[in-house]
Amino acid sequence: MRMKSALAAAAIVALAAGCGSGGGDKGGSAAGKPGEPVKLNFLSLAWQKESVAANKQIVDEWNKANPTIQVTYVQGSWDNVNDQLVTQFAGGTAPDVIHNDSPALSGFASDGYLLDLSDKLPAELKSDIPQKSWDTVTFDDGKGKQGVYGVPFLQESQVIIANKKLLDGAGVRIPTPDNPWTWDEFSAAAKKMTKGDAFGVAWPMKSPVNKSLNLALNFGGTFFQTVDGKTTVKVGPEEKEVLQRIHDQLYKDKSADPAALGQGTADPLPAFYAGKFALLPAGVYLRQQVAEQAPKGFEWVTLPPLKGTTTDQGAVSQTLSVAQDSKHPDEALKFISYFLNPTNQAKLAKGDWLLPTSVKAAADPSMTTKENGWDVATASAKNLVVAPFLKVNGFDEWKSKVATPALQEYFANKISIDDVAKKLVDDGNKVLERYQR
Amino acid sequence: MTATATRPAPPTPPARHARRRRFSRQTREMWVLMLPALVPVLLFSVGPLLYGIALAFTDARNTRNHETSFVGLENLGDLLTAEDFWSSFRIGMIWAVSVTGLQFLAALGLALLLNQDLRFRGVARVLAVVPWAMPPVVIGLMWKLVYHPDAGILNSVLGTHVNWLADFSLALPAIIVVGVWTGMPQTTVVLLAGLQNVPRELYEAVEVDGAGRWRKFWNITLPQLKPVIVAITSLDFVWNINQFGLVYVLTQGGPGGQTRLPMLFAYEEAFRYRFAGYASMLGLAMAVVVLAALGLYLWRQMREAK
């Protein structure tokens, strides 16, 4: 009997010790005894070499200037950040400052994992970023109240990267930010540039959803509508316009390179350098790879976004947020304000080849130089409006389960435009329903 | 204890009393000795399992401001009417059955070969076990490079330009090949061990009767191996249907859900869409299906063996 109780006691002690050290992990970084510096973890998703360097440099500068608030740089990856955050949030071990993008914030905000920053933002930061960018991070908190759940800092617009020799050779009008190509002009130009074994354009559509939805706004296509608080999918003539035009280039005009269709955005670049096609619609960040990898003597230009009935494009932004469970939200916000001041934003934008949200950073000479198309890219920021899908609860599931396969099949010419519309709406509404119970 | 039970006991009451006390003391000691081993099992295995089963009957979500409530069999109802689930289930079955089957055939061939008196047999046996030493994630990354559309050796050997893992109809066969390759060593080693236990005399006896190679294989090797075959194929089946890491690295369930095995589906539901209750029900349903399939298979094999 004595042996039994002794063993039981030993087991309990061991267990308690085990739990203690497990929980201590979390407490250790946040306890902050008086006199000890506050410690913050900063999860960064920077991945391009220049951008990681810029991030680390800013963190180092901050740590030197603020001995009482020490920030640890934690490297994350876009591939699995949301899976990682779901488990970390549930386990209470999330980093204090979180780098992510606005589509992901909507879900985390309504789940209550992120801190509402609306009353805490310093005036300087708030006024430096235009309201339409703040709109990309304003979400419902899951109980009907709107809040600001991140600070937007980098934005991406869709431009066209063109082979200068083929463009000049075709004798088409060169578009400018003030007078961009219409979709009709774009189709005509692509047809003209389709000669011999060279195609006019390439549409890498391995991940077709965000690209199609952002461009669909050119003709007012929103894909979602909210009536009486219930969100449903809508695919009407406005939504079909851009889908149909891309499909026409592939199968009617035959001015789009079919080899690029199943590829990811950066995959067709070798063929682009080889002159196999002239125009590559892509996000502004792709300029970096072209600038760094293109063979010597390859000349390229950046063309401004296309015009349908408008030049509007759906915008999402990269963001920094504070975890609801962070023990030092005020210090975290101080760090964010420093991290995203105009000077640093210009640095980050240059590192990632994206557009800064800060008005002052966008006016930086390095953001408006003609070199590498920065002038065209920065000018395209004026076309960005909040992407309607940002506010849709369940968009992620709709995208991966319904929209991605449906659009892939449509662009592979396996189903018709009416089939794809029906799939997006019928199957899509079933998915959205789960989130509106 | 068996000895105690079978010994003809004198039915005198005091003796029985004494024996019961000794018996209970034995039990107590057994429990005390088992406790250190039992605690981790209860804490890290049985506990989470029961928690998972309980979750399956709630509408739990991985969120901070959601009140979890008991919903009974609603998750099961949703599951059985969801097309996604059935397509995932179908893919899981195709995957598990074909990988297990092909694995068995390939491993049997290899084991027979390695059982011959070949030169460099030792080296060959070591080489056959190499995939076993690799973690599934490393295998996944390696095969991803093999299948790479531009830089992969498969395309350069075949002279094709196929994006194997992104093609709607090729992705599943492509990962099945990887699955077979991955699981072959275990199966081969177990079958080889089984082959070496087949008594020589049996072969000698049928050789006297003038049996050929095929007859020997069919009438001696296979029946002798049967218990081993049953054991290893059932284990392989369970292992394959629960496969996660390999496919997660290779395709993440894509393209368009063509390789979304049930476990990937459950993972997506829980950690991507945050429906923890629904995902638990999915895990539970799969466990029941596997147990039922396995039970039926083993029961039939046992009955035949008798």
Key terms for this structure?
heterodimer, A: 437 residues, alpha/beta, D-Maltodextrin-Binding Protein, domain 2, six-stranded mixed sheet, four-stranded mixed sheet, 19 helices, B: 306 residues, mainly alpha, MetI-like fold, 2 domains, 13 helices, Bact_solute-bd_prot1 (chain A), SBP (chain A)
Folded structure, characterized:
The complex is a heterodimer of chains A (437) and B (306). With 437 residues, chain A is of the alpha/beta class. Chain A has helices at residues 2-30, 49-65, 81-91, 102-110, 123-128, 131-134, 164-170, 183-193, 208-216, 237-251, 269-273, 287-293, 329-339, 342-352, 359-362, 365-368, 374-379, 395-411, 417-434; strands at residues 38-44, 69-75, 97-101, 138-140, 146-148, 151-155, 158-163, 199-201, 224-227, 230-233, 277-283, 300-303, 313-315, 317-322, 355-356, 384-386. Chain A is 46% helix and 16% strand. In chain A, strand 9 and strand 10 form a beta hairpin. Mean pLDDT of chain A is 88; it is low at 6-32. Chains A and B meet through helix 1, helix 3 and helix 18 of A and helix 2 and helix 12 of B.
